Amino acid sequence: MQLTETTLSSKEIFSGKILHVTHDEVALEDGTHALREVVRHPGGVCVAAIDKDNNLLFVRQFRYPYGEVVLELPAGKLEKGSTPLENGKRELLEETGAVGYSYISLGQVYPSPGYTDEIIHLYACRVQEVGDAQPDAGEFLHVERIPFLTAAEMVLNNRVFDAKTQIAVLKAAALLQSGQI
After folding, report:
1. What is the pLDDT of residues 23-37, one digit of tens each?
2. Which CATH architecture has domain 44-177?
């Protein structure tokens, strides 16, 4: 068993500012054909920024698809011409006003591999200084500092719903506990 699919044809059915959607026909390993709808996304980045008192910097923002305010770590989409780390530093500064140092990679996650090719790069860092946030036009955020242990408990008690935030908090908590951050 090879567990592969071969693209036979691909047709873009939507092209937006961020997302592109394709309708693809694929050949399965048994020779049959299937259709796939794929959301193409440039990828994203998420940063678990830890201050000197071991608080994590979070943002609360209204997320239209869910119709509610969501608690998240600073994050954003990847911009062309910049590395994921450069994007993470930019997003942290824009959303929280913080400048980080001692960045470490927490790896990558595939948020929903059944229908999108998005990859989110996760980082942790220490906070050097915090100034004024510089959100993008139309981006309205409330910055919060939450003690690391409280944040981990919130994830475990299903009080943080954002997947990238859950993963980054728990990975960073494990590294903090082992003295690697």
Report:
1. 999 999 999 999 999
2. Alpha-Beta Complex (3.90)
